[in-house]
Design brief:
Layout lengths: L1 E4 L2 H6 L3 E3 L8 H22 L1 E4 L2 E2 L12 E5 L6
Parallel strand pairs: 1-5
Antiparallel strand pairs: 1-2, 3-4, 3-5
């Protein structure tokens, strides 16, 4: 699956996206735990305030299943005017 990072999440990871592999029947929470471990506290703080899209649909339940080939977008709060 692909995790795409925007704004502060991109700054915290140093990349626009990464491909990850999970076995079994992973959930959004599993994906977030994995990328949080990979990128440390800086991304962890961003994830705590972020919204997520799974294949373009807002994620309300972090226990939602993630299928092979899915895209998860990490959308931190945006500032501006």
């Amino acid at each position: 699956m692909k995790v795409r990072y925007f704004a502060g999440a991109r700054a915290a990871t140093g990349t626009a996206y990464e491909d990850i592999e999970l076995t079994g029947e992973p959930t959004v929470a599993d994906v977030l735990a994995l990328v949080g471990e990979r990128h440390g506290d800086k991304l962890g703080r961003v994830l705590a305030a972020s919204s997520f899209l799974l294949d373009g649909v807002a994620v309300r339940d972090r226990h939602a299943r993630v299928h092979a080939g899915a895209e998860l977008d990490v959308l931190p709060p945006f500032a501006g005017g």
